[in-house]
Design the sequence.
């Protein structure tokens, strides 16, 4: 079982506190992750050959050690959505592919999001396309955890 809270923080200068606990007097354990939206962009494409051509690209900055979460699955990533079979690639600053996210399987329970831990503080490239030579569209959500 998991819980999720979505909150838009007020302008800078505010201090916020997050508290995690158990229901009633029961015991529980878990991991608390705080995600910050880094990029949210829409795209529409066709004939991208698994996001290798005719793609929509975005550079997003991450600090070393941050977990990069990205995908087009609305059930896990706030603001994400898709139509058709989307395919995403993540590249480091040297142009080395470090992760992919594929929506070949319709439905978000199979692969809700993809994660990668940033090795360096730098810009990473998110390349958005479609499975094979199909047409697709979506909103890519990119978060730092």
Sequence:
């Amino acid at each position: 079982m998991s819980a999720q809270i979505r909150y838009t923080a007020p302008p800078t200068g505010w201090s916020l506190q997050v508290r995690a606990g158990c229901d009633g007097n029961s015991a529980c354990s878990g991991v608390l992750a705080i995600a910050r939206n880094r990029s949210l962009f829409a795209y529409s494409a066709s004939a991208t050959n698994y996001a290798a051509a005719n793609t929509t690209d975005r550079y997003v900055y991450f600090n070393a050690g941050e977990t990069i979460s990205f995908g087009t699955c609305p059930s896990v990533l706030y603001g994400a959505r898709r139509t058709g079979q989307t395919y995403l690639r993540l590249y480091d600053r040297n142009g080395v592919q470090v992760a992919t996210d594929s929506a070949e399987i319709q439905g978000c329970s199979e692969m809700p999001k993809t994660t990668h831990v940033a090795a360096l503080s730098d810009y990473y490239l998110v390349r958005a396309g479609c499975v094979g030579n199909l047409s697709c569209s979506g909103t890519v959500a990119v978060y730092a955890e």
The CA atoms of residues 46 and 135 lie 4 Å apart. The radius of gyration is 17 Å.
